[in-house]
Amino acid sequence: MDDQSQKSWWKRLSGGLGRTSASLGSAIAALATNRKLDLAHLDMLEDEMLRADFGQELASRFVAAIDAGRYAHGITADEVKAVLAGEIEKTLAPVAKPLEITTRPFVILVAGVNGSGKTTTIGKLAARFRAEGKAVMLVAGDTFRAAAIDQLKIWAERTGASIMAREPGSDAASLAFDSIAAAKSQGTEIVLVDTAGRLQNRAELMGELEKMVRVMKKVEPTAPHAVLLVLDATVGQNALQQVDIFGKTAGVTGLVMTKLDGTARGGILVAVASRFNLPVHFIGVGETADDLAPFTARDFSRAVVGLQ
Q1: Residue range 68-108, pLDDT digits in tens
Q2: Model-level pTM?
Q3: d(C-alpha 67, C-alpha 45), whole Å
């Protein structure tokens, strides 16, 4: 990413996380006094971090890190933000990993609950890979929704990716099988497979996801090469349950978190990273293709606390 692109992304990221950083801002400002740190103000900051869905363990640890500084003569708002950003970055650094394309075709199965932004994320990933000059195939595996099939066709046309789709109600596993076979014969580099937006508590739908994985392996034993779970940041703590159940069902290898611009709960990404230690490959802060970008621990950590 060149300097101009980096500045543009930072502006979108810091703006997108503005609701979360603003929710922490009043508590941070209350700490920024000319006297010794006040326990009540530390508790206020911890409460705000809980509201931002960092979770109790992380909120307590991060606030303790500020208290450990022993700021006998007070602390500035930027000093509070710097300590918090540093602690958050230490938590996120181990999971901030790029998605590595290691084989051809590289099959990416994309899963997530209804409304998580899954199909849109696939389109944005297709745009990114096409901009890199890669041959991309989109597979409309959400056969339950005609709208999802149509949406993916639009993304294919927009990005110049090929598309494999069938009528609504078709067998998704059969479509995945045929798509991977076609990708192998055509020399396609990346295959992005959409799936029906499953609720994690619907056992029969999760069973169909398992079937897709099994059937893929019949045509390509190493597929899927990546299983990305798309998480909607606005659901807060429910994201933890989604990662747990989808991980057991589909073998999630990495995460994409969307809609960080629509919530004051940006801390949920930190909570998920801390609990599951799964790679976070991309984050989204808006609707356009440019609003999805590779995840970096430092940028996110500074933006989520409002440190410029």
Answers
A1: 876 656 788 898 999 999 999 999 999 999 999 999 999 99
A2: 0.94
A3: 11
Q: Which residues contact 248 (CB under 8 A, 6 or more apart)?
A: none
Over 70: is that where the pLDDT of 214 sits?
Answer: yes
Residue 53 in tokens: 């869905």
Tokens of 258: 């969307």
- The residues near 242 (Cβ < 8 Å, ≥ 6 apart) are 112, 113, 200, 229, 231, 235
**Alpha-carbon separation of residue 74 from 34, 37, 68, 243 (angstroms):** 4, 6, 13, 40
pLDDT tens readout for residues 154-170: 999 999 999 999 999 99
State the Cα–Cα distance between residues 273 and 279, nearest whole angstrom: 8
Q: 303, 21 in Cβ contact below 8 A? A: yes
Q: In the numeric block, which tokens belong to residue 143?
A: 């056969």
Alpha helices per DSSP H over the chain:
3-16, 18-31, 39-51, 56-67, 77-92, 118-131, 146-159, 172-186, 203-219, 238-250, 268-276, 297-305
Q: Are 139 and 192 in contact (CB under 8 A)?
A: yes
Chain segment 98-140, per-residue pLDDT in tens: 999 999 999 999 999 888 999 999 999 999 999 999 999 999 9
The phi-psi region of residue 117 (left if phi > 0; otherwise alpha if psi is between -120 and 50; otherwise beta) is left
Give which of 238, 138, 153, 133 is closest to 194, Cα–Cα: 138
